[in-house]
Design brief:
about 290 residues; alpha/beta; TIM Barrel; 12 helices; 8 strands; about 15% strand
């Protein structure tokens, strides 16, 4: 088993909203416990799947307290998504997340203002200086800027920067990252690429679909690391339709609709996102039925 500072399966947790539009902390607490009991080693709170762009800081900090409380008696880590496109703001939010008791930080590439690679180094180092373990989040499709491999190598020299969530969607880039920066532990950032990423050296997944099939994803990753590649491949192909259906529309609308339908009420998405269509929910239901045992 490789070194896995955040376990094998980290779930990018949705944020439940009440009918009045506010954060539903009771539902968040229950969902955190459910995920912890069903395959999640780590819960990533207020990431993109948690609708971080539409949460204010007070809502985020309150969520950190809620989720930390929910899993305090369990072996589940809590990671806070505190990255923004303002370094000062990111540092302040990271400090407050640390005070709330989170175990680690997810720091996304600054979006829209497109900093240089030198700017990225300074930004991420400032966040890491707060003192919590940091997972970088490399997702150029959403941010407009990729953290290049040489930059990842420089950042890996910081003692608190320990991992990267790779959502570049380019296995050549993933392979190069692992070859050039072996000390930076790589997690896949896309469910459908989990098994291919494991094959080139990733250790696990930051998952969206684990809201629905967390135990099965955990079994797939464990099978791979145990050397049972045939079983890992079988599970990948079994789960692939679920992975595909969860991204038929902009994340997190599909998975939030599915959780509403198949687990319990977690509310709508906040504008400018809109709720997933009935057709998308039907596609997820069909994919889940094929998995069986849910």
């Amino acid at each position: 088993m490789p070194k896995t500072p955040f376990g094998l399966v980290a779930t990018a947790m949705i944020t439940p909203f009440a009918p009045d539009g506010g954060v539903d902390h009771e539902a968040a607490w229950r969902l955190a416990r459910h995920l912890s009991d069903n395959g999640s080693d780590c819960l990533v709170v207020t990431g993109t799947t948690g609708e971080s762009p539409t949460l204010d800081d007070n809502e985020k900090i309150a969520l950190y307290h809620t989720v930390v409380d929910a899993v305090k008696e369990k072996d589940t880590l809590v990671m806070a998504g505190t990255g923004t496109n303002d370094t000062r703001h990111s540092v302040e939010l990271t400090e407050k997340a640390a005070e709330a008791g989170v175990d680690a930080i997810l720091a996304v590439t600054p979006y829209y203002n497109r900093p240089s690679q030198e700017g990225l180094v300074a930004h991420f180092r400032a966040i890491a200086d707060v003192g919590k373990p940091v997972m970088l989040y490399n997702i150029p499709g959403r941010t407009g800027r990729r953290i290049e491999v040489d930059t990842l190598a420089r950042l890996s020299e910081h003692p608190n920067i320990v991992a990267v969530k790779d959502a570049v969607e380019d296995l050549d880039f993933t392979s190069k990252t692992i070859n050039v920066v072996p000390d930076l532990i790589l997690y896949s950032g896309q469910d459908s690429l989990t098994l291919p990423s494991l094959a080139v050296g990733a250790v696990g997944i930051v998952s969206v679909a684990s809201h629905l099939v967390g135990r099965q994803i955990q079994a797939m990753v464990r099978a791979f690391h145990d050397g049972d590649h045939e079983e890992a491949r079988r599970l990948h192909h079994l789960l692939y339709p679920v992975f595909e259906a969860c991204f038929l529309e902009t994340n997190p609308a599909p998975v939030k609709a599915a959780v509403n339908t198949f687990w319990g009420r977690v509310g709508d998405v906040r504008l400018p996102l809109v709720n997933a269509s009935a057709e998308t929910v039907a596609a997820i239901e069909k994919a889940l039925a094929a998995v069986g045992g849910l």
